[in-house]
Amino acid sequence: MTVNFDDGRTMKQRMLAGELYLADDPELTAGAERAVRLQAEYNATFPVDGERASEILAELIGSLGEGVAVKAPLYVDYGSNITIGAGTFVNVGLVALDVTPITIGAHCQIGPNVQLLTPTHPLDPEPRRAGYEAGEPITLGDNVWLGGGVIVCPSVTIGENTVVGAGAVVTKDLPSNVVAVGNPAKVIRTLD
Hints:
By secondary structure, the protein is an alpha/beta fold. Helices cover 22% and strands 28% of the residues. The chain is built from four helices and 20 strands. The strands form four sheets. It has a seven-stranded mixed beta sheet with strand order 3-6-9-14-17-19-20, with no helix packed on it. Strands 2-5-8-13-16 form a five-stranded parallel beta sheet, with no helix packed on it. The longest helix has 20 residues, at 26-45. The N and C termini lie far apart (49 Å).
């Protein structure tokens, strides 16, 4: 498999477009190092200085709505590709791997140890061995509730007001106003 990187775009532009890229690119490495530094500072500061922790979080995350609460620890790839809507609450241990955009709507409830995973890798072993990666965005509509330990896979959109039960693995889009559980997550009822 040959990939043409001679189209004038940076690896970051390719990454954000969901196309194959090389993660060891200097610009991407600098962004990842920034995220590691800021998330470590946030995680250490959160228990002792809430005001300073909020400032660090605002620097780390691409866009934060009014009244967002994110409990530490928090783990991201870049942070800058994450949008969190107003009034959203994120419990401890969120892993948000944002090689492509992660959009979390307003007034969402994110349980402990949730994983939002945008990265993908080629199935063919040769390009994978060569270091090629890609990603697909994740979108959570307004008022989504993800129970503890939910895993949301790349390219998934979850519609507004939907509830995903603890431990579910969401591999495909979920419509608005439903309850979904299991691995893979399946809709078990609609909400009025």
